[in-house]
Amino acid sequence: MVYKCVLSFLLITPYILHCTTAAVHSHNIDTIERESDGSYRARDYDHYTDAGHNLEFDHEAILGSVKEAEEYDKLSPEESQRRLAKLLPKMDLNGDQYIDRKELKKWILNSFAKLSREEAQERLLEADENSDGLVTWAEYLHDTFGANDDEEVAPDDTGDTGMLVREEKKMWALADKNGDEMLDLEEFEVFSNPEEHEAMQPFLVSQTIRERDHNSDGRIDFKEYLGDRAASHDKAWLVSEQDKFSHELDLDGDGALDEDEVRRWIIPDNDEIAEEEVEHLFASADDDHDELLSFPEVLSHQHVFVGSEATDYGDHLLGDRFDDEL
């Protein structure tokens, strides 16, 4: 009976069927930033998962806020579309009622910057024990490790950035531009998302080389690149990593990664990620293939750009009730 009822409901309201690829917004801003190979996690790390395409990334790339994306998930389709319509003129920089690829890319890159600030602000609020808008190293240690000073932290403990604490302390000092031994929001954002700030990237490269360069030649060979990971993987994985190292990372083919190659390896390229997201959104919504997104095209594919109550309900309807009945 449930199966028939679901089909009947979907026939009456096809919009919900159209939006069943979304999920309840579940983004977590406290995810560890470093991958197992030592590279920093890219903005789109969960855009495509084992379960398929994740619309949450698309919504955040448009809205520039996890909180706002969650709010959209609770809106009616009509209200969600009304709010999206108000955003479109802001995305349309030349005012021609169309959004071209350059305009969309600029918007997405700005969204990435806003997401970085939102993440830092949320994390700062957690660590700022006296609510003065600043975080001291002591407050950070206490919030992250429950420690009162450096002596209470184990040498192999890692903080929010995935680095050893002694490395984090060096990066803290680098992020503290005014040298007052406290980080305001702007400085804390640089500390908590160093890979997204060019001024911090030389430190990240040097830190990676210090961490992995066991023969002290200033470069990272394949064995050093693998590190301890090889012990827990099979031969097929090893062959795959060798291919990646040789053909994607070691650009000059000399058998080791220099500073520039390490940078390309560990630092995600937000510009490239934004390009890929533009390509994805155009493929999803440019119905007449004119290389422009008209406002009606965006609004008719609203589920790709933002969420709504119907998006989530449709997902529950098919995901849960179909599974139960079948």
TrEMBL record:
InterPro entries the UniProt entry points to: EF-hand-dom_pair (IPR011992), EF_Hand_1_Ca_BS (IPR018247), EF_hand_dom (IPR002048)
Keywords, ordered alphabetically: Calcium, Chaperone, Endoplasmic reticulum, Glycoprotein, Metal-binding, Repeat, Signal
Domain of life: Eukaryota
Signal peptide: 1-22
GO annotation, cellular component aspect: endoplasmic reticulum lumen
Keyword Glycoprotein: yes
Gene Ontology MF term list: calcium ion binding
Listed GO biological process terms: protein transport
SMART domains in alphabetical order: EFh (SM00054)
EF-hand domain residues: 79-114
Compartment(s) where it occurs, according to its Swiss-Prot or TrEMBL record: Endoplasmic reticulum lumen
UniProt keyword Hydrolase present: no
Function per UniProt: Probable molecular chaperone assisting protein biosynthesis and transport in the endoplasmic reticulum. Required for the proper biosynthesis and transport of pulmonary surfactant-associated protein A/SP-A, pulmonary surfactant-associated protein D/SP-D and the lipid transporter ABCA3. By regulating both the proper expression and the degradation through the endoplasmic reticulum-associated protein degradation pathway of these proteins plays a crucial role in pulmonary surfactant homeostasis. Has an anti-fibrotic activity by negatively regulating the secretion of type I and type III collagens.
Subunit description: Interacts with PCSK6 (immature form including the propeptide); probably involved in the maturation and the secretion of PCSK6.
Name of this protein: Reticulocalbin-3
Gene behind this protein: LOC106127494
